[in-house]
Amino acid sequence: HHDASRARPMLEHALPGGQPGARHQHEGIAPTARDPACFEFAQLPGGIQRQWTVHQPILEPLGEIVASDGGGCDESRRHSYTSRMSSPPPDYVALADRIRALAHAAGFQRVGISGVELGDDEYFLRSWLDEGLHGSMAWMASHGDKRSRPAELIPGTLRVVSVGLDYGRDADAAWDNLRDGERAYVARYALGRDYHKLMRNRLQKLADDVANEIGPFGHRVFVDSAPVLERALARNAGLGWIGKHTCLIDKDGGSWFFLGELFVDLPLPIDPPATAHCGTCTRCIEVCPTQAITA
User: Fold this and answer.
1) What is the C-alpha to C-alpha distance for residues 165 and 192, in angstroms, rounded to an integer?
2) Backbone φ and ψ of 160, nearest 5°
3) Are 232 and 17 a contacting pair, CB within 8 Å?
4) Side-chain-side CA neighbours of residue 185 (13 Å)
5) What SS3 state is found at 148?
6) Backbone angles phi, psi at 190, to 5 degrees
7) Residue 278: which residues within 8 A CB-CB, separation 6 or more?
8) What Cα–Cα distance (Å) separates residue 28 from each residue in 18, 34, 111, 232?
9) Between the CA of residue 203 and those of 12, 118, 248, 260, what are the distances in Å?
10) pTM (predicted TM-score)
C-alpha cells in the first residue's frame, strides 16, 4: 500500500483508502453539532437526509461526526435495533457465508469482510496530511484518527462488511464518445441513478435481512457519508488492491465499481486481504492529463 501515489493538491484527486471519484464525492464531511439522536447523511446531489435511531451502544457517537449542510429530518428513515441478539450466539462462519449470499442477492457484485485494524493506513494518512497533499480538502484532517479507526468512529464495531457495485459500461462506446467532438462526455459513474441512495438502501436491506435471521444486532451503513477509509477496508476484505492512481483495482473488474460499508458488532471471520499487482506498471501516471499522480 505504501507504493500508492502521493497526490498533489488537485481538485480531482482522492486520498488513498478514501472515497472514490472526484472532489464532489468528498464534499461535506465537516463535523456538526446537532441533536445526538439524529444522524445526517450526505446525499449527492440533493441535500441531507437524517436517520433516527435508538440503538445507543454502537451508533450514538456518530451524531457528532457526520456531515451536514442543512435540511430537514426525515423520520421515515428509522433503522437499526435496540439491543444485541440474545443467546445462544449464531454460527459466525455460517453467518458470514449467509451475509455474502444476501449481499449478492441485494444486487452487489462484490462483498468481503474485514477487521477494523488499519495501522499502516493510519500512518500513511498522517504523512499525507502532514505534507499538505489534501490541498483545500480541510475536512480530511478533521476527526483525528477516527477515520482510520472504525471502532472509535462507531464504538462497538468489530467487523466491516465491504460491498462493491459495478458501474462499468461498454468501453468502446466510451472511447467513441470521446472522439466525437460534437458530444459531451459524462463520467461513467454519473450515468445511472444516484448510487448513494441506491447503495444505502441496498445495504440497509442487507442489514434488515440479517436481523430477520439472527435477531437484532448493532450496525451502521455508510456510502460516502462519514470519515471512513473505505478503500483500505475494501482491500482488507479482498475486493481489490489500491493502485498507484489511488483507486481500488480488481483484476477482473478494474476500478469500475462503487464502494459501500456495513459496520457491525458481530465477530465474523474475516476474508484474506487482496494483494497488489501493479508492479512496475505506470500507465495511469503517464496518461493523467494534469500529472496529478506520482508514485
Assistant:
1) 12
2) -125, 125
3) yes
4) 11
5) helix
6) -95, 5
7) 3, 241, 243, 244, 249
8) 14, 15, 26, 21
9) 27, 23, 20, 8
10) 0.72
**Nearest residue to 243 via CA among 274, 275, 276:** 276
Q: Kindly provide the residue ranges of all beta strands, DSSP E only, lying in 118-242, ordered along the sequence.
A: 159-166, 219-222, 241-242
Pairing of β 48-52 and β 38-42: antiparallel
Residue 122's CB is within 10 A of a number of other CB atoms, namely: 17
Name the residues annotated as catalytic: 224
Grid cell digits, residue 154: 462507531
Q: Do 147 and 125 form a contact (C-beta atoms < 8 A)?
A: yes
DSSP 147: G
Which position has the grid cell 441533536?
35
- How far apart CA 161 and CA 135 sit, in angstroms, is 30
pLDDT by residue for the chain (295 residues), tens digit each? 434 333 333 333 334 444 444 333 333 333 333 333 333 333 333 332 333 333 334 444 444 444 433 333 333 343 444 445 456 788 999 999 999 999 999 999 999 999 999 999 999 999 999 999 889 999 899 888 999 999 999 999 999 999 999 987 777 888 888 888 888 888 888 888 899 999 999 999 999 999 999 999 999 999 999 999 999 999 999 999 999 999 999 988 889 999 999 999 999 999 999 999 999 999 999 999 898 887 6
Residue tagged 450466539 (cell numbers): 89
Give residues with Cβ within 8 angstroms of 85, minimum separation 6: 214, 215, 216, 217
User: How far apart, in Å, are the Cα atoms of 21 and each of 3, 39, 72, 100, 206?
Assistant: 20, 24, 27, 26, 25
